[in-house]
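Same chain as my last thread, 199 residues:
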Amino acid sequence: MGFFAPGDTVLRREVLHGKPWSVMPTRVVEDGPELLVVFVVPGTVLGYPDHHYGHPWRAKGNTHWRGHGKLQLHRPGDAYSVELFWSGEDRRFQGWYLNLQDPFRRTPHGFDTLDHALDYWLDAEGRWEERDRDEFDEQVAEGKYDAAQADAIRRTGKEIAAMLDAGTTWWDPAWAAFTPDPDWPVPVLPEGWEDYPLP
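reply #2:
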């Protein structure tokens, strides 16, 4: 499967228990053998297929992406993405959000993954903290992950914590200065997205 071109719209789909769980259209910034970078444009509509395990964002009525959007960096094989956030009228860089998730898998329409709830935040000044441990533990108890998956997620968390403690982050800090192309329209969910097959 080939790489996507800058500006392409691709679907970031979460797959849980063998069924699509959520779908988010994203805009490709960069794609190659070592890094996939996509941007979530403000106002992007989020899709929630019917699923036996209800999506918490759907329950909260989150239908669109708000704010300044977010940039997502993915390395093949990593069980997390690195997400960048900005705030305020001056679009000031806030920090790096390490979102634990399944390593991304390419599809004809984009890529599949699954959010793991457990996250880490590294602010622009270099301070970091773990986030959403309680939510992760709750999802383990509810059966979102089996025991082996939960153990793997915890190991990834420890590896990330060690990386942040050592200050050995791998991504280019220049991404903090990223600005989206003003000519990019808000991507939309394509017709029939609910029926796209799993690879």
